[in-house]
Design goal:
The protein is an alpha+beta fold. The chain is 45% helix and 16% strand. It folds into 2 domains: 2-175, no CATH class; 195-345, no CATH class. The chain contains 15 helices and 16 strands.
């Protein structure tokens, strides 16, 4: 559970929005206070800094979609990402807590770091570094509750502010199904440019493969699991049992065979190479009939098969009637799709039968050729399922 609270205090001067929302800010995650600090003048331990909640509310409202749906990048975080996920970037003359917020769409991670410089002025955050994992829905509720409480204070002071306009625009987006879908997808992609999304959709329409997939109701995958990788593994095993009940471990090394198994029509003349600098690997959209469309690049059989398997997971095992893109973002869905693809193409049970508890680089390469995947996929399967000891010597 996450709580953002402001205990109002009097402020003698400043703009009306500053005075109406001034007070002591406290942030609690999983019952722990993430804003404890020391005031330099009194050396007193306080529950939080004195700030204007208006600026925090404005920042939360402006970045609502990204905070709720954008995961932490695997590579070095850029300046733009930090501005949208780190409270310390708010500025406006206040010393904000060193708190970072990110979400994979299912779970949100809140991390807090104390002030490094012991001689820091104004307010010094103390305590050990801490993090909390909470439900992403709780994060959204906490943000909404805090912003609305600041709006109530502003209304009481008869102040019409930029926050009112941002919040009204956000509420309109949240009530518009198409706008919600686009903003959510935009955040999940880790992209701030909607033109990039339009490019992906155009690729799906112009160069995709139509699909009439297996009825998801025919595939039994009853596991109720929050962990993305476990969900991916379970769904892969279920789909393999459905497609090959007699032998669920055999390799599907031919791309055309995989396409046929997953229900994609053969349209090789419409394949095209994707832009290398793009995070996009494959795209999935839905027509009026609910069919999927996948983009297949010319990057090699193993990579394309992995793309297709990931796309199959998003189509078979995620929400109905929504558009999905396969990316390298670290959202719950994308992590689950990677686990699904690895298990569907190179089942752990099949690998275990052939390993005998030990794996050398030569054996890993042989298994990669056998299952039609790259060696890194085999290594991940061995490590994640603890199938064998890898001897790289």
């Amino acid at each position: 559970m996450l709580k953002l609270e402001l205990a109002p205090q009097h402020l003698d001067s400043g703009p009306i929005e500053e005075r109406a929302t001034f007070g002591t800010l406290q942030v609690f995650a999983d019952g722990r206070c993430f804003t404890e600090g020391v005031a330099p003048d009194t050396k007193e331990l306080l529950a939080g800094p004195r700030v204007s909640g208006y600026h925090l509310a404005e920042w939360l409202a402006w970045n609502w979609w990204r905070l709720r749906w954008e995961a932490r990048p695997s590579e070095t975080m850029g300046r733009e990402w930090r501005f949208s996920h780190c409270l310390s970037s708010i500025g406006e003359g206040y010393v904000w807590p060193n708190i970072e917020i990110s979400s994979d769409g299912v779970k949100a991670i809140v991390t807090s770091t104390p002030t490094i410089d012991p001689a820091a002025g104004l307010y010094r955050y103390v305590g050990a570094s801490a993090f909390a994992v909470i439900a992403a829905t709780d994060l959204g509720a906490a943000i909404d509750g805090f912003v609305r409480s600041m709006l109530d204070l502003l209304d009481g002071a008869k102040a019409d502010t930029n926050l009112h306009h941002i919040w009204r625009d956000l509420e309109r987006e949240q009530q518009d199904a198409d706008a919600t879908r686009l903003r959510r997808l935009e955040a999940r992609l880790g992209k701030g440019d909607m033109r990039w999304l339009r490019r992906a959709e155009a690729l799906a329409a112009d160069a995709g493969r139509a699909c009439s997939p297996v009825n998801r109701e025919d595939v039994s995958c009853d596991i109720d699991e929050d962990a993305a990788h476990k969900r991916g593994y379970a769904c892969a095993a279920a789909l393999r049992r459905h497609l090959s009940p007699a032998n669920g471990h055999e390799p599907i090394t031919d791309l055309d065979e995989l396409l046929a198994r997953l229900g994609w029509a053969q349209r090789p003349s419409q394949t095209m190479e994707l832009e290398r600098e793009s995070l996009l690997e494959a795209a999935l959209t839905r027509s009026d009939e609910g069919a999927a469309v996948a983009i297949i690049g010319e990057a090699g059989q193993a990579r394309n098969r992995f793309r297709l398997a990931r796309t199959a997971f998003l189509h078979h095992f995620t929400g109905n009637g929504t558009r999905r893109l396969v990316t390298e973002a670290h959202t719950w869905e994308q992590r689950a799709s990677r686990a699904f693809a690895a298990e569907f193409l190179a089942p752990a049970a099949g690998l275990s039968e052939q390993l005998g508890g030990r794996a050398s680089p030569m054996v890993i390469d042989e298994l990669a050729d056998h299952y039609g995947v790259n060696s890194q996929t085999i290594r991940h399967q061995i490590a994640n399922h603890r199938l064998a000891w890898i001897n790289d010597s």
